Amino acid sequence: MISCSRATAIAVIFTMVTAGPGGAQSLPSARKAILDGYAAAAKQSDPGFHGFSAAAGQAFFLAHPGVSQPETPSCSACHTTSPLNAGRTRAGKDIAPMAVSRTPNRFTDFTKVERWFTRNCRTVYGRLCTPQEKGNFITFMESL
Amino acid sequence: MSARLVRFGLLALLGVGMPAACSLAEDGPEVAVAIPAAATAATSGEATMAKECSACHIAYDPRFLPSRSWVALMARLPSHFGEDASLDPSSTMAIKGYLTAHAADSRYGSSEMLRGLASTDVPLRITDAPWWRRRHRFLVARGEASSGGIRAAAKCQTCHGANGRMTDDD
Question: pLDDT (tens digit, 9 = 90+) per residue, A54-113?
Fold first, then answer.
């Protein structure tokens, strides 16, 4: 039979392995890992990539690309023009503010981040967003 | 079942009891092992539906539509009333299973929910279901069930409380 201290050590390691992103990691480091991933992908498609821009993220957030349904012309249609505000879905549910300063666990769960970029980029822009655009967006949300 | 739930399940199986017993027996680093009490409940289609669907709207009562409508809706989540609501395959299956098993034409439904509905009718909007239009004639008459419906009629919670479900008083 294994000793208690050994069993405890195994439990620690197991907890670390199973906790996954957001569990063992702090929220800022989980967010940084996601941004680093987008940076690596952006660099791969554009060797001239030189980092993310909060200003570009803001422009992307406010833009009306003109390809969507009338109800969803822009990110700000549901999230309001300031990410510091709570938003509202078309069906009347509240959306927590996008700004990291208001909702600290924003952009810390990669699966969730990808799911909502996929859905909302298709809804508003009619296409998937690029890693550069996703990184700009998160950088903007971190800057407020 | 999501990967996270699998991990919780494994954690619960392997972790139960051990750290607590050890902390009595010897000094050493305490390990907090989180064992979610509702891990099994959270794997159900109902819990998945409540979590995923209610991100955008109330989790509508499955009895509101026949199972064929839920099948059709779940098959076209990437084009869900003008928005992309795509979902991973396992969550989609779990939710579809729950909705169809509790639909208007399941044993949980009633003849009232099916009256006026031809067997070939596949309403995609709850506000198009005959039972809904009968019970909400005043909204239909005001035009709130058609144009701008998503802003008015689909917000069951406006009149029916937080979860928008039917009560015996309705």
Answer: 999 999 999 999 887 787 899 999 999 999 999 999 888 899 999 999 999 999 999 999
Length of chain B: 170
Q: What residues of chain A lie within 8 A of the CB of B156, using their CB?
A: none
pLDDT at B156: 81
Q: State whether A93 and B84 contact (CB < 8 Å).
A: no
For tokens 């406006």, what's the residue? B158
Q: Give the gap in angstroms from C-alpha B27 to the nearest C-alpha of chain A.
A: 9
What interface predicted TM-score (ipTM) does this complex get?
0.76
Q: Are B109 and B70 in contact (CB under 8 A)?
A: no
* Residue A1 contacts B, CB cutoff 8 Å: no
Range of the domain at B34: 1-43
Q: Do A119 and B84 touch (CB under 8 A)?
A: yes
Indicate the helix (H) or strand (E) that contains A88: strand A87-88
Of chain A residues 22-41, which have a CB less than 8 A from chain B?
none
pTM exceeding the 0.80 threshold for the entire prediction: no
User: Domains in chain B: how many in total?
Assistant: 2
Q: Are residues B33 and B66 in the same domain?
A: no
B7/A12 touch (CB, cutoff 8 Å), yes or no: no
CATH number assigned to the domain with residue range A26-143, chosen from the 4 options 1.10.10.10, 3.40.50.300, 3.90.1150.10, 1.10.760.10 = 1.10.760.10
